[in-house]
Amino acid sequence: MAEKVVTELSQELVDFLQGEKLVFLHTTDHETGAPNVAAISWLLAVNPKLIRFAIDPRSRVVSNINKDGRVSVAIPGPDSCYSISGVAKADTERLEGVALNMIKVDITVDEVRDVMFYGAKLSAEPKYVKTYDPKLAEKYDTEVYTALKKG
Prior knowledge:
Blueprint: E1 5-6, H1 11-16, E2 23-28, E3 35-40, E4 43-47, E5 50-55, H2 60-67, E6 70-76, E7 81-90, E8 103-114, H3 134-150
Antiparallel strand pairs: 1-8, 2-3, 2-6, 4-5, 5-8, 6-7, 7-8
């Protein structure tokens, strides 16, 4: 059976990416040209063709994107694992209303693939625990998602 490739997120994926999810961002290292992977969670689907995430402007991810904007995002869930490819553009402006020094990055979606191996489906989402003050974590989450939704 041929692999199904589509050019935008399904409504199910858009809905899934409306809050904290553990995803893996793949960029090309700006110095070595080697693959680079970063785990991120402050990400949301704005619409079927646009994904936005928040990141510290000092992150290596930003340098990588500024040199080569081609990226992919591996998303475990819902039920499967998806690879979303596109072109990222890092903003230079600090996210307004966010206590942390963060910028937004927009990814224009070019391709969505279901990359789960044959005969399997995910039975649970990956879980993680924040290891810093829960009230501070909630404050940052609220600030970041409010800013990302504003655009």
